[in-house]
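pasting for the record
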Amino acid sequence: MHARQREPPSELELTPANLFSSCIVRNDIGMTSGKMAAQGVHAARMSLIVALQTYNDPNLIQNILDSGHVDTVSMLQANYETLAKLEFDARERGIPCFLFSDSGHRHNDIIDGSPIVTALCLGPWRRSDIHKLTKKLPKL
């Protein structure tokens, strides 16, 4: 089955009002709020790199860099199964994303230093495309 690739946002769409990222962190492994925020930031940083590679258009990349930020980043929460499904669905739709795994840091009995998936970031991409995937998730 081939992924349904969508064209990257056009220059007209590539404005802070149209670009959106959504970080989804696991709520089933006992992370503190600070740990959740840190994991979301790690996933967002990596997802931005994936997005820049996906766009493969120097003008679009420069516009992202010049804007200095993506307009909105939502922080949502879900369990591992939901993260895995969201990652699959995003890739199927051509949405840049990154599933982040933490390792080497002991946080509790579940996060014991072994690699463990902690967060997913979708985008930056069209707000409407990301919202279709995340609209039912609870906010952090």
